[in-house]
Design goal:
Blueprint: H1 3-9, E1 12-14, E2 18-21, E3 26-32, E4 36-42, H2 45-51, E5 56-58, E6 60-66, E7 72-77, E8 84-89, E9 95-101, E10 107-113, E11 116-121, E12 126-130
Antiparallel strand pairs: 1-5, 2-3, 2-9, 3-4, 6-7, 7-8, 8-9, 10-11, 11-12
Amino acid sequence: MTAIERLWEEWTLPIRDALHYADGRSYALTPAAPTGFTVLAPFDLDATLEDDPSWVSSVDGLTVADLGERGLLWAGEGSYGSEGFLARLTTGHALLWAVFFAESNPFDRIRVSENVATFRSTLGIEIAVDIDDPRRWER
């Protein structure tokens, strides 16, 4: 089990603008207007958590989009008012990928059109992603 899967079992995510895949890959992100983000360098989540295991935020879902047999999209808030997350899960709620933003505010709306999901935060930030692989939609 990867570090991100262990964190997800406890409903927590690392406090860093980042994209995490269940297979253990993690990438730093920077938000990019109007509807996306730029993927930056990969980083070692295990090493980061070893340096500071408390570097996590509890997450709570505020909205869900059911993808049927393809699983679901889930989005919401972190421990602090400024944090937001988006995630794709299997039908059994196992993590496929998750994105965390420290300054987005909670995401409370999801709109799905074909293979693209648009997540909207209470701050009005919209993030559009390819639901199969968010890196394909980077701006």
